[in-house]
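Pipeline run #58 for the internal structure catalog. This entry was flagged by the ingest filter as a single-chain record with no existing model, so it goes straight to prediction. Upstream metadata was stripped on purpose; only the residue string is passed forward. Reviewer on rotation: M.T. Logging verbosity set to normal.
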Amino acid sequence: MDNSPPPCSFRFTLTLFLAFLRLGLTAFGGPAMVAYIRDLATKKYQWLSEDSFKQGVAICQVIPGATAMQVAAYVGLRSGGAFGAIAAYVGFGLPAFLLMVSLAILYQNAHDQATVVAIFHGLQLIIIALVANAALNFGKGTIKNWRDGLFGTAVMLFLVLHGDPFVAILASSLVGIVFYRNEATGPKGVLSTDSVQMLSQLRIPLAITACFLAGMVVLFVNNRQLFDLSLVMAKVDLFAFGGGYGSVPIMFNEVVGKRLWLDGKTFLDGMALGQITPGPIVITATYVGYLLSSLPGALFATIGIFTPSLIILTLAVPFFDRIKRNELFQRGMQGILVSFVGLLLSVTITFIMTVQWGVPQASVAILAFIALRMKVDILWVVLAGAIISILLF
């Protein structure tokens, strides 16, 4: 595969932006949107071959960040270079950002009204079912034997006892290197590349990184609150392996547990809003940012939650063939992925402890979980939960 970025024009960049903007308006279902991106990129516009698209999906599944957002950026990068990647990324995420800001404004002004309180009480139960379902789905694809189960359980207990998720993830990568040393995780190889070619391929990620760091310096000098908010969201994004849901336990720990910016109920309400907007669950960062610092907070929290994973994508694309064959990388990634089962289980337990339970609450949560296991679309589960909540609570 040719790894050099293609030539780009303003007209083509605009085409990418508008195509992904239209797709982003209906981007419900999270990772399920990858199939629609494939149709757009390989069939409607024929920007990429089927093989190139499949390789992009493989890359996006092993790096941090929301999978569908990363795949959109990959299509833009492969077809339109750096500006193409940014255009596709922004276009795909913009509808979710604008809708979440609107919902955050409504929430801030109406969250204490009786009907709204009832709706969000029910939606918190739906979120518990969603996270539990995500943990089960993630575990089915990741936990392969009793050792994996023991590893994931240890991570869960560490976090339930108020351990730091960042420590858990870093430790899991190191433990994974030792833990899986006798297991074949994929084809082996070594990391090697021509230094001149490497420098050429680093131009795009270095340019984006320089812009991001320059912006962070400006924030540090002029507005320390926005700097802290952006930095926290960037940290969350850097460690959000396993798709958008991988960010949930980390963001919850930072926003609710460590910094006390929001209480658990308010954070759960934000996650509920994130499920009725198009785009990934990490758009909850926009909601957090708005509640803390109005529109500037929403903007900079969103930039923080999406930029690091975009940089990692632009770094990973040229070197993926070499990196994925490195045995240490494979073992470390396996440790991280198993740890995320524990992360999701721990945040499920934390969310359960946040809610006041009774028979109606348990019934709603169980029915939502059953519906999700039966593959009912998330949007319909959330909307049904809102209607039932008005009647019950």
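catalog note: The mean pLDDT is 83.
catalog note: Residues 188 and 325 are 5 Å apart (CA to CA).
status: ready for reviewer M.T.
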